[in-house]
Amino acid sequence: ASVGAFAGLQTLNLSGSGMLLATGNSTIGSGVLLNTGGAIPSFLVAPGATLDVNGSSFNTTLGWHKDLDGTLRFNAQQFAGTAGWTSLQGGTVVLNGGTNTLPTSTSLVVNPGATLDLNGNAQTLLILTATNFMDIPGSAGNVTSATAANLAIAQSDTANRAYSGTISGAVSFTKSGTGGIILTNPNTFTGAFTVNGGSVYLKNLGTIEGASSIDVNFGRLGIENHGYYAVADRVPDNVDINLLGGSLYLSNNANAASVENVGRIVLKGGMNFVYTSLQGGSGVNINSVDLIAKSLVRTPGSDAVVDFNGANAAIGNAGRVQFQTPPTLTNNIIGAWAINQRNWASYVNGIGVNSLGAAGYQIYSSTSANMQTSVATDNVFLQNQNATLAGNRTINTLNMYASGASTPYTLNLGGFTLNSVAGGLMFGQNGDGSHYTVSNGNLTAGTAGVGGDLHVYKLGYTAGSATGRALTIGANVVDNGAGPVRLLLNNSDTPGSAYFANNTTTITSTGNTYTGGTVLNHGNVILSGAGNPTTGVILPAGASQATFYNPNVPDSGNQYATTVTVANASVFKVGQAVSGVGIPSGTTITAIDATDPANQLITLSKALTDPILGGSITANSTVTLNVANLTVGTQGQISPANRVILNGQSTFVLTGTNTLAGLTLNNQGWNEGGWNGSTLATTPTGGVVNVGTGLLTLTDTLVATSQNPATISTITG
């Protein structure tokens, strides 16, 4: 039987419970709209029968149900179920309507005995789970495809929901959004596995052994053995785990030993966390957890850092992160890009990662007051000390640590230069009220003529009153001779908390001349007077770029934007060259009236052609926002030589007349609509460019890419 296609839109009314029963092969034509009178629609397709739906189906936002063991085939994109739950109780539902045959806001329950066949298509769902979110293995059905297909879960609240069924076949799996999904059943899919936000937990019998690749981008992959079952092999042993601002951890059951072998851990960028979670134990019982990777790889030129998050490796009952090919230590540390909470990370073969100075590990080689006897191979540790240089000093790394004393500490460079060969300056605290000031001289990294990365860590205290946690850098960051230096700023506190708000790194130096670029990996950074007197940039980028990463921390799967504040009152200085839209070439600042610090008046040597311009950002390069916000208003402009790139749900706000070399909006497939307390938001967004009432001129291309058609990038004004 069939309900055929009509020349115009026709309505098929389903009265009562809104059920449609198909006992043979049946078709609903392309011109038919189903009206259920407010009831939740149900498809009952008998065993051996097939129901083809060739058009868009319902005039309701409610979900729908599929029952009995027959096959329901959607041959066109559907628009029902945008607010309610959709459930598959039995049989098979085939998605034959192309990309996102079902609405991307669908919350889908796949119960035992039911199958969702992606049929070679890409499908984004808001939620994938089983009835009552059951986490007992086998209490859900199957999602599969015989040919290459993509399944994305874009859960945008903060809950963790279990999917206790199977994902199989040639499917690639992506988790985006802020929430978490717990996979509790063996999964045999053979495509890529990607976390683009939020968390994926492998628990109970959950595995992804067939995954062809594993990428964790600003999200978390938890390998959990503290559940109903402990499984010795949840992820493939020979597939790289690529981390871009991501977290990876392994846990054990209390009083049990857990071991997981994984492929190489590859650090692609951002601030990453790799650690073990040791559960409670007692007496003489075995209580250990070993995460064993083939090796640790940091992509050449990467801005990646890794925190092993309190690794406390030891023989016996302990949590250990180990590498089959041990990392090469230089001056007893893995590198200035590898830390263990408030210490540099070191390694002992056969035991694993722990802090420099831990029992059984190499110690800090210098605790010399004022670094008077410290040399280029020394990792310097200054606890509860001020320091003043008496001359230029070259060391390997510096760790200034406050062990609970409510005292401000200073590093006075004395007008000299402190060079960290490894490129690591760490400022940590174990209590409130211990803020740091670095001033009166220059900071650089690497070797003369070569330069390198300068990693600056502000590692705060996560209890107490959340006060006095600041780091202020008044010293200038400079290249090492002709060798370019890149500045990387990192912070460890949880975004959104009072600790994060008070654990700040403030740049007040006015003579920065480094040319290697600036990376904000994680934290709350305040730019206050970081102007370069020769180029007029706020943070000098040379021929490189300023990169803003959103932070990710082990105890939160939520996405936050790095906070960047520019205090324009101290950015500019007399004699500084400025450039930008409406400023003639060769213009300099001749006077500054800072009576109103937020809106100071500057006098220029040449008349402006655009009177709205008050300041300038002039790096002739790329400005990249990774889930961050940048506002350019009357106090600043971006040079017209710049291309602006927005990744994910970034926001770029412009005021007045602006010219850019180009604009790129990269939609990363995240549904970041949010949770309003009762309903899931159904309007996902990509990047947003707001040009206000002004004029935006692009001298080159406007590019928009998409990994999720339901996530929309917008230009408004």
- Shape, per Cα inertia axes: globular
Please identify the structural class as seen in this structure: mainly beta
Gap between N and C termini:
52 Å
Point out poorly predicted stretches: 4-8, 529-572, 595-600, 608-629, 633-637, 668-685
Q: What is the typical, i.e. mean, pLDDT?
A: 76
The percent range for helix content is: under 10%
Beta-strand content bin: 35-45%
What's the Cα radius of gyration? 29 Å
Q: Quickly count the helices.
A: 1
Which sheet architecture does the biggest sheet show? 18 strands, parallel
Q: What's the total number of strands?
A: 63
Overview of this protein structure:
The protein has 717 residues and is an all-beta fold. The chain contains one helix and 63 strands. The strands form ten sheets. The chain has an 18-stranded parallel sheet that branches. Strands 18-21-23-25-27-30-33-35-36-37 form a ten-stranded mixed sheet, with no helix packed on it. Strands 1-4-7-9-11-13-16-19 form an eight-stranded parallel sheet, with no helix packed on it. The chain starts with a strand and ends with a strand.
